[in-house]
Amino acid sequence: MTWNDALNDFQLYLKIERGLSTNSVANYTYDIKKLILFLENHSIQASPITIKHTTLQEFIYEVSKTLNARSQARIISGLRSFFGYLIFEDYIKINPLDHIESPKTGRKLPDTLSLEDINNLISAIDLTKEYNGVRIGERDRTILETLYSCGLRVSELTALKISDLFFDEGFIKVTGKGDKQRFVPIGPLTQNYITLYKDKVRTAINVKKEFQDTLFLNHQGRQLSRAMVFTIVKRLAQHIELNKTISPHTFRHSFATHLLANGADLRAIQLMLGHESITTTEIYMHVDRSHLREVLLKYHPRK
Asked: Contact, 269 vs 284, CB < 8 A?
């Protein structure tokens, strides 16, 4: 079995059997290709079936010179999954990563924005801005409002369809990781912004046939890219001289943190974010510790 054959099979497994997103599959592929390049550069003759534990140790040591602990841990996890797949398919009997420990990374707390930060970012949008006759300022405001009010991942936002809008019921249908769908509540203010964009701005775009149902479009009538949403957020942060490194995901973190701080139930936040495990959602308990103190003072009998 060659590396390319094994990698192609693994990619199909991740996509079809595990239902991972294109981005997740790409991350796994990147890690494995990094190992393949290491073998080629060091003239090491080893296939996915014959590679030794010691060779993988050498590879990990090599990448540790240039990557931080979190990146090292991700590569080790990706390779462990790859060789676990080979065990599953009966190509090998033992995972050569079994006795290689991942570096301790700790738990990275997400960056968040205050409500004032969010208001300043949205207020900084030039609503008169146009490109090729398209009022992209109105579009950008709607994007930021939707990211924050619904706690969406950027990929979920760009994939949002007009047919996913159930405003009469007060929900939108979101397609998340692994093509799993969930219904997320949406408030009247954001509904109004989306309706304004859809009826007044989007109608000025010459929409390509395959994107007729896609909500957020670029001026060429195609689905807005993830990279463009990152650019919109970055430019606004620079414009208001926000002394924070933020991304579209920061709005998602802020959504969860603000809900928790205002007394929302952790289980409800988990469902809105689309987390499979509530332990993922629990990270927001560490972001605003004042909430924990308020709970203790309110509910503990011997406060």
From this structure: yes
Give the total number of structural domains in the chain. Answer: 2
Closest residue by Cα to residue 175 from 164, 187, 190: 164
Structural domain including 120 reads: 115-294
Give the CA diameter of the chain: 68
Closest CA to 177 of 154, 145, 210: 154
Pairing between β-strand 181-185 and β-strand 171-175 as defined by DSSP bridges: antiparallel
Active site residues: 153, 177, 249, 252, 275, 284
- Token representation of residue 262: 């205002």
- Residue 181, H or E segment: strand 181-185
* Backbone phi, psi, residue 72, to 5°: -60, -45
- Reported as a single tens digit per residue, the pLDDT across 99-131 is 777 766 555 656 789 999 999 999 999 998 888
Asked if 3 and 48 touch (Cβ cutoff 8 Å), the reply is yes
Q: Report the predicted TM-score, pTM, of the whole model to 2 decimal places.
A: 0.64
CA distances from 58 to 55, 92, 134, 199 (A): 5, 20, 54, 58
Residues 123 and 80 reside in one and the same domain: no
Q: For residue 215, give Cα distances in angstroms to 8, 133, 192.
A: 33, 18, 14
Task: Report which DSSP code applies to 13.
Answer: I
pLDDT band, very low/low/confident/very high, at 132 (cuts 50, 70, 90): confident
**How far is Cα 273 from Cα 278, in angstroms, rounded to an integer?**
10
Residue 22 and residue 75 in one domain: yes
- The residues facing 184 across adjacent strands are 172
Express each pLDDT in 10-44 by its tens digit. 999 888 888 888 888 898 999 899 999 999 999 99
CA trace torsion 230, 231, 237, 239 (10° rounding): -170
Helix (H, G, I), strand (E, B) or coil at 214: strand
| Amino acid present at 183 | F
